[in-house]
Amino acid sequence: MKLDSGGATDQQEQEEIFDKDCPDFNYKLILIGDSRAGKTSVTERYVNDAFDEKQKQTRTVQISRKMVKIDRTEKWAQLHIWDTLGQENFKSLAPLFYRKAVGAFLVFDLTSRKSFENIDDWYQQVSSNVDGARVIVMLLGNKADLPNREVSYNDAMEYARSRNFGYLEVSAKTGTNIRNSFNCLVKEIYRAQVQEDPTTGNTIKPPGQPFKLLKEGDENQPGQSEQEGPAKGKKKKECKC
Ligand SMILES: Nc1nc2c(ncn2[C@@H]2O[C@H](COP(=O)(O)OP(=O)(O)O)[C@@H](O)[C@H]2O)c(=O)[nH]1
Ligand SMILES: [Mg+2]
């Protein structure tokens, strides 16, 4: 299992060993979208910080696990990240796949207009299979490293706004915005759950309004993306959610 303490020092990590052994939450996340959009690569980059140019088509449902400290909290979540198999074989497994998911990434390929046009069908799949009030959805435009894009930032953002999703442009190849997107999704799931906790007295968040949308000028604009990881020697940017 992988750990992500969001850039904590060694000493902090020692202090947190106990906490992370006993996660405060278990979150099931799913990635959906057209075949070849990069779902497996996004997962692989996040969980193993690796990328395979010749990523093979996923033949079975793959579940990866990773511990993550929830941004700006002392809470740890264990993520159970479910990656789909090819579209053709997916129907029979759909109920099991969507069951109890609390977060969903809708992934399209920025160099494939078709994969973007199919996104709303994938969203319909999510909303018909899971409780829409509970699942937090985020749109990811992957392959931001490639020059031949067919989907503009504005088109994707407009769609995301219409559905009240967050939107980030990412690259599984370079790692751009990958960790940021998981951090944002996890934080929103946490917020939604806290707000649903009757002991806190907070009001229940209305369905379909999970995300504070990213504004123009934020880091997901083309050419302004975050390069992550300590190896790059850059200060970790804060989640924009
Ligand atoms: N250039 C580039 N290629 C990518 C990226 N993500 C995935 N790929 C490639 O796109 C192809 C499909 O990726 P894969 O993760 O298998 O897509 P999936 O079918 O949605 O799981 C593979 O050849 C990957 O190497 C990316 O961010 N940039
Ligand atoms: Mg795959």
Automatic annotation (TrEMBL):
GO terms for molecular function: GTP binding; GTPase activity. PROSITE patterns: RAB, RAS, RHO. Keywords: Nucleotide-binding. Signal peptide: none annotated. Pfam families: Ras. Residues 232-241 have a biased composition (Basic residues). Residues 197-241 are annotated as: Disordered. This is Uncharacterized protein. It comes from Halteria grandinella. The lineage of its organism: Eukaryota, Sar, Alveolata, Ciliophora, Intramacronucleata.
